[in-house]
Every structure is written in structure tokens, then in C-alpha cells.
Amino acid sequence: MKLLIPDALWEEIAPLLPPVTRRRFRFPGRKPLERRKVISGIIFVLKTGIAWDDMPAELGLGCGRTCRDYLKKLQDLGVWQRLHTRLLTLLNHAGRIAWTLGVIDSASCRAPLGGAETGPNPTDRRKLGSKHHIMTDGNGIPLATNLSGANTPDINRLLPVVTGVPSVGGKPGPPRQRVDKVMGDRAYDSEPHRRILRWLRIRPLFGKRRTPHGSGMGVLRWVVERTLSWLHHFGRLRRRTDRLPSLQIAFVSLACVLICWRFLQQ
């Protein structure tokens, strides 16, 4: 089986994990599975979209319930977000992040089991779905994400995404958290939001409603569409089957980690 966590990536993950609980001397119970194998099982589910209960035992990556509980535990501890920030720091140190431009967009996925942050998708015959909001830099590196129901207007998640970029170090001086400009399509056309972004010292570059097509933004906006395509290449993000939004957010953060890792290997 293909190695799901390369050794170099594991060296970045391991220091962020919580300490291992010491086993009791008497009645220690079953020896816990290696954490690297459990996280490999989580990545396997993320990539394939397989149900937790259908995890093949012959892979040796633990049962689905173990992987699910560990995914939620690390999400509650903020491990996935810190790991994403760590890889962004490495990319920034290497001069790979283009802070001059942030590009924002969203894409919907089906959520047949419902749950929080789902809603009728107006582009899919009102079937239940969720929407993944993302902002990338000018190269397509994912900087921040957000989750909402499929019927949520994109403009409602503009500010949470733009201000959700973590503090990224890696270079001399204070950490960087804001891009210079934000580009988006007509869905983000809002003068009040433009004023807020200017107050944050971010220049808004949004399409105007009721204007002819052909603004030329596609020359730069394609990077976020490519990253959204990468996100939905992961089976678990293409079709949401977890009712808990925290699990879906954890999967999105882990997918961003894997995408950032690809950029680091280029």
C-alpha cells in the first residue's frame, strides 16, 4: 500500500500531538494502535470517501470508530489547524506564499445525511448540501476555509474567511496574517463589505453585478478554482456523510495540509 504519511510529514505532525496516556500497571487493557497508523487511517477515509464502518481491517490502520474518535479529538484540540499553520510557515519561509493577492471562492458538496451547516442546494434541485469556502494566495495555496449550508450566500462568509487566515511566521519581522488584495466574482459584490476590507487595509477586487461578462479576472482567479477542484478530489469532501460539522471542518483542514505539503515538495 502507498505510504499515506511520508516520514518528513510525520516529523511535522508528531510534535503537535497530545502526550500518550500512560497505561495502567494492572489491567492495562489492549495496547493502543500506533498514532501514525490511526492518522493514516483518517487520511485513507478522507481520500477514498469510504464509510467509517467499512474500513478494511487488513490494512492494519485501526477500526473506523477509532479513527473517527481520534479525528474529532485532534479537531477539538486544534491540532489540524496548528498543523496547517505550521506548513504555511514553512511555505512562507521558502518564499512560496504570494501575499500580494488572495483569491476567494466556494464550491458545494452533497450532504445526504444532513446535520448542522447543511441546506437546500439551489444548484442541485434543492438537495441537502454544504458549501466549502476557501481563500488561497496568488499561487493557489489554501490560506483559510469555512463551512456553511449550500444555500448560504458567498458574501456572508467573506469576512470570516478573510480574517480567518492564521498568523504565519517564517520570515523576519511580525507574522503575516493579511493579504494585500482580495479578488472574487460577482457573488462578493457588496459596498459595505468593500468598506470593511479597506478599513482592514485590504483592497477589494470583486466583480460587479449586472455588468457584461469578460472582466478578465479569470486570468488570476483560476488558482482558487483549481484548489477547490483538489479539495473535492478527496472523496470525503465531495460527498459529506458526517452530521457533525466539526468532522467536516477537520477533513477540510487535513486536506489543506496535504495540498500545502504538495507545494512544499515542488
Net shape:
globular
At the fourth level of CATH, the homologous superfamily is Ribonuclease H-like superfamily/Ribonuclease H
Helical percent range?
25-40%
Oligomeric nature of the chains = single chain
Beta strands, count: 6
Domain module count: 1
Beta-strand residue fraction: 5-15%
Terminal Cα separation, in Å? 23 Å
Summed up, the helix count is 9
Which regions are unreliable across 5 or more consecutive residues at pLDDT < 50? none
What does the largest sheet look like? Answer: 6 strands, mixed
- Secondary-structure element string: HHHHEEEEHEHEHHH
**CATH top level assignment:** Alpha Beta
- Structural category is alpha/beta
- Identify the CATH architecture: 2-Layer Sandwich
Could you characterize the architecture of this molecule?
38% of the residues lie in helices and 14% in strands. The chain has 266 residues and is an alpha/beta fold. Strands 1, 2, 3, 4, 5 and 6 form a six-stranded mixed sheet that branches. Strand 5 (181-184), helix 6 and strand 6 form a beta-alpha-beta unit. Helix 2 crosses helix 3, helix 3 (64-76) packs across helix 9 (245-265) and helix 4 runs parallel beside helix 9 (245-265). The radius of gyration is 20 Å and the shape is globular.
